[in-house]
Design brief:
The structure holds 2 protein chains of 2 kinds. By secondary structure, chain A is mainly β. Chain A is 0% helix and 50% strand. Chain A contains no helices and 12 strands. In chain A, strands 2, 5, 6, 10, 11 and 12 form a 6-stranded mixed β-sheet that branches. In chain A, strands 3-9-8-7 form a 4-stranded antiparallel β-sheet, with no helix packed on it. In chain A, strand 5 and strand 6 form a beta hairpin. Chain B is mainly beta. Chain B has no helices and 11 strands. In chain B, strands 2, 4, 5, 6, 9, 10 and 11 form a 7-stranded mixed β-sheet that branches. In chain B, strands 1-3-8-7 form a 4-stranded antiparallel β-sheet, with no helix packed on it. Chain B is globular and about 35 Å long. The N and C termini of chain B lie far apart (37 Å). The mean pLDDT of chain B is 88. The chains are: A mainly beta, B mainly beta. At the A-B interface, strand 5, strand 6 and strand 11 of A face strand 4, strand 5, strand 9 and strand 10 of B.
Amino acid sequence: GDSVTQMEGPVTLSEEAFLTINCTYTATGYPSLFWYVQYPGEGLQLLLKATKADDKGSNKGFEATYRKETTSFHLEKGSVQVSDSAVYFCALSGVSSASKIIFGSGTRLSIRP
Amino acid sequence: EAGVTQSPTHLIKTRGQQATLRCSPISGHTSVYWYQQALGLGLQFLLWYDEGEERNRGNFPPRFSGRQFPNYSSELNVNALELEDSALYLCASSFRDAKAFFGQGTRLTVV
């Protein structure tokens, strides 16, 4: 079945470091791919998305490119801030299961000042 | 435009009781999903309702149930509560396979 695999956390970085959180997926067809973020004490928020191969989603300095050849959607940011500390979820939807959203297990990111 | 709203924000129940969680989707959205996020675990899919019908459910026991009303709002019921049911319960809504929007969640504590 469809699935999403994220790198295991937690990830701890210093402020201004480069961030990569890996995400790969398994799906039939052409899913839409998402990154969601959950800040401490808050609900999930959509961070960015891409709906077709080679699309790049971007928001708040974060980027992710839909790579069909490697079935990946890695999240990157060039210079992280303390305020980026949160849990990040990779997700896919819009495939054969129709409307069901499949999440990865989440990666906790902590940024040191 | 109002987002997905969930109520209550926090709920404390004792073991064996029943809990009812509510979700109002964004206007125009016909699909409602319920997820459980237990401490230390990722999101676990619970239930998916679309157009008033249950379309799919995750690997949870039958004491987790719910329904979707004609106005597309939804309830999640958890019977015979157990300590390990303590978690954040998230509701999300979407229109067909468009992106989903999440509510703030209901934090259920079973003591």
